[in-house]
Amino acid sequence: MTETGQTAPDFTLPQDAGDPVTLSAQRPAPVVLYFYPKDDTSGCTKEAVAFSGLLTEFEAAGARVFGISKDSVVKHGKFRGKHDLTVPLLSDEAGDVCERYGVWVEKSMYGKTYMGIERATFLIDGAGRIARIWRKVKVPGHAEEVLEAVRAL
């Protein structure tokens, strides 16, 4: 499980629009990684739209923002196109990055348990350390809260 103050686990993942993204190559910019369960579901769409709507403000604060799920690059592309998303979406189909960030967890719905991605966001500072973690994210107001944390770095 990742914790605040730790060096963020490095990775390289394919994105839906462009070259693969390597976390360590983003330095010295702060990075926001938001993990979400599934493309084109209600909560995930609202979250992606919120981050996309604030992307220019994140960029003005010097930060980069990436959404990560286990959906394929092709599915991410359709999701972005359907909702005019501007935030790059990274595909972790193998689930390795989700595991290393501790967001692949046991969940339950209607009395059944299953494994899935916990909605979580990680703010990584310019030195590559985890500055803040939000777990079990509630979508309304979340992107705005993360933007304020970026500005406070």
Automatic annotation (TrEMBL):
- Stored InterPro entries: AhpC/TSA, Peroxiredoxin_AhpC-typ, Peroxiredoxin_BCP/PrxQ, Thioredoxin-like_sf, Thioredoxin_domain
Q: Where is this region: Disordered?
A: 1-20
Q: Name one Pfam family in it.
A: AhpC-TSA
**PROSITE patterns xref list:** THIOREDOXIN_2
Gene3D superfamilies attached here? Glutaredoxin
Instruction: Cite the EC number.
Output: 1.11.1.24
UniProt lists the family membership as follows: Belongs to the peroxiredoxin family. BCP/PrxQ subfamily.
Report the CDD domains cross-referenced here: PRX_BCP
Q: Which residues form the Thioredoxin domain?
A: 2-153
**Catalytic function, reaction form:** a hydroperoxide + [thioredoxin]-dithiol = an alcohol + [thioredoxin]-disulfide + H2O
The record describes the protein's role as: Thiol-specific peroxidase that catalyzes the reduction of hydrogen peroxide and organic hydroperoxides to water and alcohols, respectively. Plays a role in cell protection against oxidative stress by detoxifying peroxides and as sensor of hydrogen peroxide-mediated signaling events.
Q: Which UniProt keywords apply?
A: Antioxidant, Disulfide bond, Oxidoreductase, Peroxidase, Redox-active center
- Assembly and partners? Monomer.
Q: What is the official name of this protein in its record?
A: thioredoxin-dependent peroxiredoxin
